[in-house]
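Hello,

Following up on my earlier ticket. Below are the two sequence lines again, exactly as submitted.
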Amino acid sequence: MTPPGQMLNPRPFPKDAAMNLFTDIRSLVLDALTAMQAAGALPTEGIGFDNVTVEPPRDAAHGDMATNAAMVLAKPAKMKPRDIAEALVAHLLEDDRITEAEVAGPGFVNLRLAPSVYQALVGTVLAAGPDYGKSAVGQGKTANVEYVSANPTGPLHVGHCRGAVFGDALAGLMAYAGYDVTREYWVNDGGAQVDVLARSAYERYREANGQAPKIEAGLYPGDYLIPVGEALKERFGDSLMDKPESEWLVQIREIATTMMMEEIRSDLALLGVKMDVFTSEKSYYDSGKIEKTLEELKGLGLLYNGTLPPPKGKAPDEDWEPREQLLFKSTDYGDDVDRPVQKSDGGWTYFAPDLAYHYDKVKRGFDVIIDVFGADHGGYVKRMKAIVAALADEKVVFDIKLTQLVKLFKNGEPFKMSKRAGTFITLRDVIEQVGPDVTRFVMLTRRNDAPLDFDFDKVLEQSRENPVFYVQYASARVASVMRKATEAGLDMSDAALAKADLGRLDHEAELKVIAKLAEWPRLVEIAARTHEPHRIAFYLNELAADFHGLWNRGNEVPSLRFVQEGDEATSQAKMALARAVSVVISAGLGILGVEPAQEM
RNA sequence: GCACCCAUAGCUCAGCUGGAUAGAGUGUCGCCCUCCGAAGGCGAAGGUCGUAGGUUCGAAUCCUACUGGGUGCGCCA
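Thanks for your patience. The regenerated structure is below:
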């Protein structure tokens, strides 16, 4: 038997694409096109191959892969698509890896690959392990993903949860695609809301000292500040009682925000989220960074004094009056209005630190900067993009991802959140009820910009409908069959599987699963390019479906069962495939921050 | 009033830098355990991709207008 590595045509694959079958075949197509040019069958002038793609066909009946080369090149080459396609087919058929090539439809070239190509891929997956599918697209580049960034005025709730999961999975995805990723949290500890926090905490402090707290409207009423009040009592005794705000505000604000951030960090830890950098808004105020930034912007001519038109369509009777303010020229960079940076009392608007912060991120030299906001902050996208457009050169990729709302359900019934009624669902509540793995996976079973229904009962259901379970079940089955094979006395060690005779994987049901594995590196690239980690979750569901399908075929076709009693060589080949499936599932779940299951 | 997001099978949703006869799950109907985990699988039926135009070899995908739903709109972050 030929070892798997030598079953291929000896022509080497390009190094940077050695694991992606689609780019391998694409380069094969490009080689063929180049050969056609050399032979005079295709013009050289004005012909570029950038738009040539090799993709899985929508319908498997069309083959394993399809290329649009003939259609894309027809116009610049001034040739008929079919003529190019037919010449291309002739060239491609010379390669051992291509068993069939035919022209179809308007000029597609459909390809069928030799089984040996797929069989060898199993070996590639096992050899690469968790690295199979890692991409070079982000190699040598840096990315900054800012997410959560909840105000430090209370514990995280379910809305933050989705942003946290999405942002973290996106960061994991970018890392898998080769980027050096910084996970960052912007701490809004510098504005009026932390003064409100301090006042609210002060009331709890009074409460701890035996006084009835006066939680007026506008203060934070949550019980979570009671421990803060107690901590303040421990620290200050009754020395701050009945003192004017000026004597305690700064101190209490500092202590309260620190305690809230500790709580937020521990909430995030429950979810498995660990930030690399927490950037403090307050530090921007304290260090003069805002003034410095604004000075620079003035130098660039991006700030001016002016008056904004009144907002339209709001309540007609409001106390709006024209006022001259210091404005940022964001309309020059795609925003709808220029944004004020200074309030009438001379203080900075919230926009000023945003401006300085994003300028800072740009200056730190990231190749990719991504902000993850809740959908209720959709109105800020244009102004943020204006900042980066004004301050960064065009090489910086800046993207803002919005996460839509999460609607909670319990047994199919909508679950209304209300702070007053005490049915306020925190992130901690969710994790404690369903666990971090389920929470994370479910949060990624929708596109980020689609609303998500989260049913506390359904997410724990063990059925086909529940993708968390379904994917976990697949990896559990692999683990289970591995145990069984080992108990049967078969050698299922990594070393044995690495040497397995993969040529025995010749059934179309097996090749179909391998073809799905072949899509993995390509999918990772697409997901990373579009900043859409949900694609990973959907892919895993598809891979699991193909695997379960193969598994069940074994019910009718005994030769498809993974364990072939008394035939170690065949068992090893089949188990190599099962292992390859579990390797990719583990890698995918790893990106999403979910643990694969060994048993259920 | 303006801006952004969304509209795909009865329901919940995928759909790649624009590709061929638009896919899953669920629900309905019919099958498959002496058999590696049936917590599963196979098959059938189900669509004017919100509407109307445009761009082109080709549009669910890009552009324009409209309809319907969500979010937001100076001195709050």
